[in-house]
Design brief:
It is a single chain. This protein has 88 residues and is mainly alpha-helical. It contains two helices and no strands. The chain is rod-shaped, with a radius of gyration of 35 Å.
């Protein structure tokens, strides 16, 4: 059985158009989804990565300073304890 090449060409063209349309719809859906997601995130009370990193750095510095002060306080308390016990 001989198949009409014009019919095959038409079917190929239709299939190609359908695939192209599906790809276009996919891109449109991705753009719309991304836009909605960005809107939802912007309405939330979240911080940017740079703000988070800045606060994290401040917290690490504060923690380090707190550990140094704790060590100094321990040394001062030890010195006071030694001075009090030597005076008795």
């Amino acid at each position: 059985m001989k198949v009409d090449s014009k019919l095959l060409d038409d079917l190929t063209r239709i299939a190609g158009s359908a695939i192209g349309a599906a790809g276009g719809m996919r891109n449109e859906l991705e753009v719309a989804f991304k836009r909605r997601l960005e809107e939802a995130i912007s309405n939330m009370d979240v911080v940017t990565r740079s703000e988070f990193d800045a606060v994290k750095e401040i917290a690490l510095k504060a923690r380090s300073e707190q550990e140094l002060l704790t060590e100094r306080l321990s040394q001062i308390e030890a010195n006071l304890s030694n001075n009090t016990s030597t005076k008795d």
